[in-house]
Amino acid sequence: MTRFQKALGILLSLCFFTILTIVPEPVFTGKNVYRHLPLYRFLEKKSREIDQYGDQKTYEAIASENGKYLRQKAKEEQTSISEKEKKKNSKSKKKQKTKKQKTKKTEKKNTSRETISTAVPDPAIDLSPDLLADYDYLLGQFYIVDSNTETNPVQLNAQDFLKQDFKISKDTDTPQILIYHSHSQETFADSREGEEADTIVGVGDYLTQLLAENYGYQVVHLKEQFDMAGGELDRSAAYDYARDYLEPYLQENPDIQVIIDLHRDGVPEDRHLVTEINGKPTAQILFYNGLSYTTAKGSLEYLPNPYIQQNLAFSFQLEYQTAQYYPGFYRGIYLAGYRYNLHLRPRSILLEAGAQTNTVQEVKNAMEPFAYILNKVLQG
C-alpha cells in the first residue's frame, strides 16, 4: 500500500468517526451502527461478560438469601407443624385418657352392676336373735299364712332353723341340683308366643347356667311339660304327673340333694312385682312351703312329708340371706296346706319368680341374686 492510500484511509476513517459522533444511530438502519466496528463488538462482549458475572454473583447472592429464607421458613413451618402435632397429640392423648378414664369408670360401673350383692349385708329389718325369737315378729316379717292352714311357734323357730347345716360339696361329677317346672307353660308380659326362652323354662335355663358356670354346681334341668295333657293345658294334675316322673328319676340319681320347682306367680294385672338390684329391674321372689295340714281336715296323712321342718329351715335360711343382702327382693315365705312335691328331698323349695305382669328380663335378672343366696346357704 502506497503512502497516498494510507493517508486516504486515515482521512476516510476520521470522516467516518466524525459522522458517527454527529449521528449515533442513523435512521435508515434503526440499529446501533457501532456494532459494525470490531473494537465496539469486543468491548460489548467484555461488558456482557462482566454483566453476566455480576448477574451470576447477584443470582448466587439472591439464591443464597433465598435458600436461607426458605430454610428459615421451612424450619418455622416444621416447628409450627411440630407444635401443631404436639398439640394434636396432646389433645388426642387427653381424649384417649379421658376415654380410658370413662371406660374405666364404665367398667367399674359395669363391674359393680355385675357384682352380686354388696360387700356388707345391709338388712332393712332387724335380724337380731331376740326379735327373731319373737314368734309374732318372725311371722310378721317372714311369712304369709294361707287361710286354709295354720302354724305355731314350735314349727316356726328361727333359732332352730339357723342351726341347721345345708352345706353340700361341689367335688362331684354327678347331678347335685335338680330344676324342674310343675307349670312349664307359664309366660310373662312380653313373652313371644312359641318361644321357650320367654317362658319359665327359659328362666330355668338361665338359673342352670348361673349355678353351673358361676358357682360350680352339677345341675340338671328337666323341661318335661307336666301341665300339658293330650296337647292341652291342664294344671289340675300337674303335681301328680311331676311326682310320677321325679320319683324314679331321683332313684336313678341319688346324689341330687337340692330340688327347685321354679314357677312364676299370678297376680292382679295392675300389680308389678319389681325392685332394683345392681342397677337392674328385678322381679321379686316368693318361697312356697307345704305343711300337709289344713284347718278343715287337720294333718293330711295321705300326703306324708317327712321333710317339712328341714324344708322350712331351708327356705328360712334363703329368706334370711335375702333379708341381709337384698331387702327389697323377697316377698316372704308362703305357707300352704298341701304338699306340692316338697317331700322328695330335705332341700326342696318351690320358688315363685315374679308374675305374669313382669317382663322376661326382669325375671331372668332375679335369678342372679337368687343364685347368690342359694350358694351362700349351700356353702354353710
UniProtKB/TrEMBL annotation:
<feature type="compositionally biased region" description="Basic and acidic residues">
    <location>
        <begin position="73"/>
        <end position="86"/>
    </location>
</feature>
<feature type="compositionally biased region" description="Basic residues">
    <location>
        <begin position="87"/>
        <end position="107"/>
    </location>
</feature>
<protein>
    <submittedName>
        <fullName>Stage II sporulation protein P</fullName>
    </submittedName>
</protein>
<feature type="region of interest" description="Disordered">
    <location>
        <begin position="73"/>
        <end position="117"/>
    </location>
</feature>
<dbReference type="Pfam" id="PF07454">
    <property type="entry name" value="SpoIIP"/>
</dbReference>
<dbReference type="InterPro" id="IPR010897">
    <property type="entry name" value="Spore_II_P"/>
</dbReference>
